[in-house]
Amino acid sequence: MKSRLGLFFLAVLLSTCACGNKEHDLPPVDPVPFTRYNSGLSISSTLLNREVKYDILLPEGYDTDTDKRYPVMYCFHGYGDNNTSWNGKYMACEPKIKNLEKQGLEPIIYVFPNGWNTYWVDRFNGKYPYMSMLVQEFIPFIDKTYRTIADREHRGTIGYSMGGFGAMVIAMKHPELFSMSAPLSMSFRTDEQYMAESQSGWDNQWGGVFGGVGQSGEGRLTDYYKEHCPLHQFTAENKDKYSSVHWFLTCGDNEEQLLIANDDLHVMMRDNGYEHEYRVGDGGHSTSYWKAALDEILPYFSALMAGETSWQKTYKTPDLSNSITLNEDGVFTSTGYISVGKAEGTALYVVHHGLDAGTIKDIFSILQRGISTKKFVLLPCDLEKKNLNEWISFYKDIYPSTAMQALAIGKAGTAVFKAKSLFSALYFENAEINENITVDTERFWYIGQTDEGSNYTSANALYKACKLGKATFEYRCRNRIDDSRTDLLIGIEYMKSVLHNL
Question: SS3 for 197?
Fold first, then answer.
C-alpha cells in the first residue's frame, strides 16, 4: 500500500515539474556586471611562502571581445603602501586612465602587486627573494590567467617613489622581460647621500635590503647595493645590456633630496649615450605630480607598444596670439612702463648669440602676454654685436629702471652668470655656463632645458648649487622638439609662468 501511494505522489510531482520540452517559469536573474577594477586578488608564492595580493584594472570590453589580447603595465607602489594604493584614495588612477582612453589611449591591462617595503628586489641575504618571485611566479601567473600579449615589447613597468626604484631596477635586471620603464620620483640616493643618512634611516629603509646594517660611511656601499644602484650600473660598459629598454624618468623640482640623485642619473645616462626621456616639473613627492606625469608617459608607452619609434609630442605650444609692436630699436616697452614716463620698472635683458629679429619678437610676445600693464621693458642683447656690459651701458640711460633681470639663451649663459650680481632674477634657457657655479639667496634662479639639450651638465650644476645653497629657484626639463625655433619658444612658455616680479 505504501509503495502505491509513493508512486502516486511521484507521478503528481513529475506532472508539475519542468520536464521534456516544457518550460519552467523562473524569476528573472540579473547578469553579473563586468568589473574593470578588481581588488584583493592573490597568488600563492612558493618562493616567499605566503600569499601575494594584487589588484588589476582590465580594459573596457575585456569581457566581450574574448579573442583580444592586451599589453601589460606593472605598477609598483611606494614605501609603506600596498597593492590598493595605485587606485585607492591615494592615487585614484582609474579615472585618469579612463579619461586618457577617451582621448585615444590604447587599452592596457594594469597590474598592481603588493611589494611591502622590499624595494622590489631580492633581499641581500637571500631570505626574501621578492624580485625572483615577480619574475618566476607572478608574471607567468598573470600571463596564464589573463589575456596578455606575453612578450617584452608589450610589457612595461611604472612606479612612484620606492616603486620608481622597482620600476627601474626590475627592467634593468630583466630587460628580456620589459621593454619600457617609467620611474616617477625614484627613491634612491647618491653614494654621498647614503653615507650621510642617519643610522636609523639607513638601517631601517636600505641596510636591511642591500646589506650594511650598522655600518657607516663607505661600509654602507656594499657590492649588493652597487649591483642594484642605477648610478653604479648605467656605465658605458653596460650600455649594450640596458639600452634595449625605453627609459622615462621624471621628478619634481621641490623634492627634498631625490632630484639630486635623479638628475645625476640623467647626466650619467647622457654622458654614456643612453637614450631616454627625462622630465623635471613643478612639484614635490606627491600624487598630484605622479598623476600628471601619466598624461605623457602612458601615451608614450602605448605608442611604443604600437610599434612607433620616436616621441616628439609636447604638452605646451607657443602662444603667439597677441601681436606686439616693438620700438625702432627692437625694444618692447609695456604700457605700464610708458605710463610712468620710463622712470621706473624692471628691465629684462634678453641675452643671446645671433637670434634673428623674428624669433626675438616672438619671445617678447610670449613674455609680455597678459602682463603688459605692469612696468617693464624687454631689451634684446645680441652678444655677437656687443658684450653684455656694453649693452647694459647702452640701455641704462635710454630705458632706465629700478630693477634689472636677465634671460640667458644658449651660449649667453656664461656672460649672464658672470654678471649675476647686477640682476635680481636670472633665467637660463638651455644655457651654457663655463664658470665655477656658486649661487646666493639674494636673487631668483630659473633653470630651463630639454632632455637632449647640449648644456645638461650646466643645468645639473646650477640646480644642485641652488638646492644645496637654499636659493629660490624653479627647474624645468621638457621633451626636445626637432624644430629648434619652436623648441626655444616652448621653453619660453615654460618660463613665462614663473616670471619673478616682472
Answer: coil
Beta carbons within 10 angstroms of residue 241's beta carbon: 14
C-beta of residue 209 within 8 angstroms of C-beta of residue 124: yes
Kindly list the domain boundaries of the chain, sorted by start residue: 37-188+229-305, 332-496
What fold, for 37-188+229-305?
A: Rossmann fold (3.40.50)
Cα–Cα dist 352/411, whole Å:
7
- Are 461 and 289 in contact by the 8 Å Cβ rule? The answer is no
**Residue 309: Cβ within 10 Å count:** 7
Phi, psi (degrees; rounded to nearest 5) at 328:
-60, -30
End-to-end CA distance of the chain: 109
What is the C-alpha separation between 87 and 154, in angstroms, rounded?
A: 22
Give the pLDDT confidence score for residue 4 in this predicted structure: 41
DSSP state, residue 105: P
User: Could you tell me whether strands 37-45 and 180-184 are parallel, antiparallel, or unpaired per DSSP bridges?
Assistant: unpaired
Per-run averaged pLDDT (10 residues), the chain, 502 residues:
39 42 58 85 97 97 94 97 92 94 95 97 95 98 97 98 98 97 97 95 93 94 96 97 97 95 98 97 96 96 89 85 92 94 89 97 96 95 98 95 97 98 98 95 97 97 96 96 95 94 86
**What does 26-92 look like in DSSP terms, one character per residue?**
----PPPPP-SEEEEEEEEETTTTEEEEEEEEPPTTTTT-TT--B-EEEEE--TT--TTTTTSTTT-
> Could you tell me which CATH number the domain at 332-496 has?
3.40.50.1820
- Sequence letter at residue 230: P
CA 444, distance to chain mean position in Å, is: 25
Evaluate whether 410 touches 352 at the Cβ level (below 8 Å): yes
pLDDT of residue 11: 42
Q: Do domains 37-188+229-305 and 332-496 have the same CATH topology?
A: yes
Contact 160, 170 (CB under 8 A): no
Strands (E), 323-400: 332-333, 346-352, 376-382
| Nearest-angstrom CA–CA distance, 278 and 479 | 7
Distance of CA 305 to the CA centre of its chain: 19
Q: What is residue 81's predicted lDDT score, i.e. its pLDDT?
A: 95
HEC string for 216-275? CHHHHCCHHHHHHCHHHHCCHHHHHHHCCCEEEEEEECCCCCHHHHHHHHHHHHHHCCCC
418/420 Cα distance (integer angstroms): 6
Beta strand 246-252 pairing with 444-450: unpaired
Q: Give the residue from 277, 265, 270, 267 showing the smallest Cα distance to 231.
A: 265
